[in-house]
Design brief:
single chain; 222 residues; alpha+beta; 2 domains; five-stranded antiparallel beta sheet; four-stranded antiparallel beta sheet; 35% strand; elongated
Length: 222
């Protein structure tokens, strides 16, 4: 009788151990699957590129060089991809420089999709042609009174506004920048030779800087 009872208890314990082992294995498999999805999401966010502006060339006159003038519309986009009001500019020459302040954040914030620091941020300052001094360029600053770019506002209060108010301090003090999750604070100017009838797209990488490239969209001359 005792042997039978012992055998029954042993079988019960063995069954429990097997069941527990299966439970742990399924749990580990579930954890691994969740971790894998999370990793894939992080990788996807780090590789994302956002459209921030279009440059629509509407007119060009004169021979290439100092006597040429290039007219275009500059259209910014907000965080949701909505176009803001177009602004017309005419530069000397056909090479346009787009100057901006850029904040790049630590990869952990980008990968986790932080509401504010989940992508690099920019504030366009000015545009100028190759035959113009930067200081003589046309202002593009679309910031609000508190310094936050109007197109990119998240609504993170003083933390958000301080990132821009303290931009140059962060650029000069890496330790202070790191304490706020800022990897790089710097000015960037991208430029390209523009051709009549073409549209050029300005983008920003989630964990990088600004880019400019021709778009397949044909420019409207309206």
């Amino acid at each position: 009788m005792k042997k039978l009872l012992f055998a029954s208890l042993l079988l019960f314990a063995l069954a429990g151990a097997i069941g527990w082992g299966l439970f742990l294995r399924e749990r580990r498999a579930g954890d691994l699957e969740r971790d894998n999805r999370r990793l894939q999401d992080m990788i996807s966010r780090l590789g994302t590129e956002y459209r921030v502006a279009d440059v629509i060339v509407t007119a060009q006159d004169g021979p290439r060089g100092r006597d040429r003038h290039t007219t275009f519309r500059f259209v910014e986009y907000d965080r949701e991809g909505n176009a803001l009001e177009a602004r017309p500019f005419t530069i000397k020459g056909d090479v346009a420089y787009f100057d901006a302040l850029v904040l790049k954040f630590e990869d952990r914030y980008v990968g986790e999709g932080d509401a504010l620091r989940g992508r690099s941020l920019h504030l366009f300052r000015r545009v100028f042609g190759e035959y113009q001094a930067p200081a003589d360029g046309f202002p593009l600053d679309g910031s609000s009174p508190d310094g936050v770019p109007a197109a990119l506002r998240v609504g993170a209060g003083t933390f958000e506004s301080n990132l821009w108010k303290q931009f140059w301090e962060l650029a000069a003090d890496p330790d202070r920048a790191a304490a706020l999750g800022v990897r790089v604070a710097q000015g960037e100017a991208v430029y390209l030779r523009l051709d009549a009838g073409r549209t050029y797209r300005l983008t920003i990488e989630a964990d990088g800087g600004l880019n400019i490239r021709p778009s397949a969209v044909v420019a409207s001359r309206d």
